[in-house]
């Protein structure tokens, strides 16, 4: 088996909330349990929503939780200078060009350009070189993606129904999340990914997209193991929205109970006893039993 390599992959588009912190701890626990290597990868392609305070908050939350990582930026300045996704635009663009070429040769309509928006639902095809057009990957009807989920078991998703045409290049010409995430994970050598259950369709989209090209094909469900955890819920079992999880101007760091609330949520998701939530170390100890 390849060595376990995972990543924390926050986006600096808001203050990190309880769900982000829980995902961080789950990822850290699984990676450390396997004796693996953990990267900090910050997804900053959404420049319109990026704020210095949000970027700084990522490092503060990691420190607050007591987590360590083996590779990645040590602070905001180090990130912007050496780790920003903007530094990887050539790699993303190379994959986009290959997908576009494939669409004009062996797989017609694999990639289509669209000018539709929230206010304009018209979706007549336009040339790929059309200014202001987004590129969308067209998933053939009936396409299903199957993989083994470490927590959810054997999983099969109807990608053709869930995400029939997802964006791979935004209207500003920059690679979209699904492409950038695959390229970044290949670059890091990622073999373990922990996500919320609501991101299972994105996992399926990335696996399908990566399979279209030989250079991205190593991002597959044999080499990469996925763990999708249940979403946080309230006392009635309803999913917590972001607005319920945090004061929007502070995030998880403002929790009255401190990081204990994070550890308690992790213990519940892992079906560990209540005493396991005493600290990060007790969580780790109970998980290893």
UniProtKB/TrEMBL annotation:
GO biological process terms on file: glutamyl-tRNA aminoacylation
PROSITE patterns: AA_TRNA_LIGASE_I
GO molecular function: ATP binding; glutamate-tRNA ligase activity
UniProt keyword terms in alphabetical order: Aminoacyl-tRNA synthetase, ATP-binding, Ligase, Metal-binding, Nucleotide-binding, Protein biosynthesis, Zinc
Origin superkingdom: Bacteria
UniProt xrefs under Pfam families: tRNA-synt_1c
Entries under InterPro entries matching the protein: aa-tRNA-synth_I_CS, Glu/Gln-tRNA-synth, Glu/Gln-tRNA-synth_Ib_cat-dom, GluQ/Sye, Rossmann-like_a/b/a_fold
GO CC aspect terms: cytosol
Residue ranges occupied by any Glutamyl/glutaminyl-tRNA synthetase class Ib catalytic domain in the UniProt entry: 4-85, 135-268
Keyword Nucleotide-binding assigned: yes
SUPFAM superfamilies cross-referenced by the UniProt entry: Nucleotidylyl transferase
Annotated family: Belongs to the class-I aminoacyl-tRNA synthetase family.
Record-given protein name: Glutamyl/glutaminyl-tRNA synthetase class Ib catalytic domain-containing protein
